[in-house]
Structure formats: C-alpha cells, structure tokens
Write a structure and sequence with these properties.
With about 180 residues, the chain is an all-alpha fold. It has a single domain, classed as Leucine-rich Repeat Variant (Alpha Horseshoe), CATH 1.25.10.10. About 70% of the residues lie in helices and about 0% in strands. The chain contains 11 helices and no strands. Helix 9 runs parallel beside helix 11. The protein starts with a helix and ends with a helix.
Length: about 180
C-alpha cells in the first residue's frame, strides 16, 4: 500500500476507533437513552449491554432510576438486578425507589436489592416497609431480599413476623426470619 493511501485509511479509521473506545460513562449514557426505545427488543439489548458493562454502568443506572418514565426506571432496575453485588453503590437510590408509584418498578427494585445481597443492608428500613407493600410480588421479593441480607436485617423482624401471617408471603417471611436469626 502506498504511503498516501495508508494515511487516508488511517485518517478514516481514527474516528471509528475513537467511537468504539468511548469512555464507559458516555457508553452507559448512550445505552440509557436506548431504554427509552419503544421497541422492547432494543430495550432488552440495552439492559444486557449495561449488565455486561458491569460497575461502570451503575452511576448512569442510578440516574435512570429517577427518570420520569416508569419503563426507563423499570429497565434500570432490571439492569441493576443483573449486576447483582456489583450494583452495591445503587443501594441508597434503590431504597428510595421502593416508594415508587409503579408496581413494576418496585418489583424490579426489590429484585435488584435481593441480588445485591448482604451489601444491601442499608436498605433494610425500606425493605421492612416493602414487606407490607400492596403488591404481593413486591412483598415476596422484599422478604427474599431481607433473607439474603441475613443478620444485619434484624430491624425488619417485626415486619417479617407480621408478613408471616399472610398466606402469599408466609414461606418467604419465615425463611427470612430464620436467615436473620441464624442458627
């Protein structure tokens, strides 16, 4: 290849390479924009890519949990659920999001907190309230999240004891009580 042609190829490929090497924050912000897409498959792809990105995606997902659109908040909670313990920095925002008006968002939030496990201990007061949520799935997953947190969730025992009286959450609440009290 002649030198001028090589130089032209290099000059054309530089912007492409720069686009691929965008910093993680910019890439995460772009993926968050994809959560607004009306195409569910595109949203699913964006969620998967955010999960694959790992911890660098968490700051953008924290912001997305406060989005005005419930479907964006729900997708952000799903991505945080997929990140599991890597999403530990989102715990305070997830705890706040347990007061969301949308049942699906609250469900995604408790599932994310459950997947974070012990590192979600700061959310215990919000999870104790969620054990009394109007949505049965939210109550169930809140109890599961408290079980995963274990002994640090001791403050939730009164709420779990009340929840153990309901058929739909009895087993999960009893499991959580055992996990918290320990052997």
């Amino acid at each position: 290849m002649r030198a001028p042609l090589r130089l032209a190829v290099l000059l054309v490929s530089l912007p492409l390479a720069a686009g691929c090497a965008r910093n993680p924050e910019r890439r995460a912000a772009d993926l968050i924009e994809n959560l607004r897409n009306p195409d569910a498959a595109a949203v699913d792809r964006a969620v998967r890519q955010l999960v694959e990105m790992g911890e660098p995606a968490v700051p953008a997902l924290i912001l997305a949990l406060k989005d005005p659109e419930a479907r964006v908040r729900n997708a952000a909670a799903s991505a945080l659920w997929g990140l599991g313990p890597k999403a530990h920095d989102a715990v305070p925002t997830l705890a706040e999001a347990l007061a969301d008006n949308d049942d699906g968002v609250r469900l995604g939030v408790v599932m994310a907190l459950e997947s974070i496990g012990r590192d979600a201990a700061a959310a215990v007061p919000a999870l104790a309230r969620a054990v009394r949520d109007r949505d049965g799935n939210v109550r169930l997953w809140a109890a599961k999240a408290l079980a995963k947190i274990g002994p640090p969730a001791r403050a939730a025992l009164p709420a779990l004891t009340d929840a153990a009286r309901y058929d739909s959450t009895r087993t999960a609440a009893e499991d959580a009580i055992r996990a918290i009290k320990g052997p």
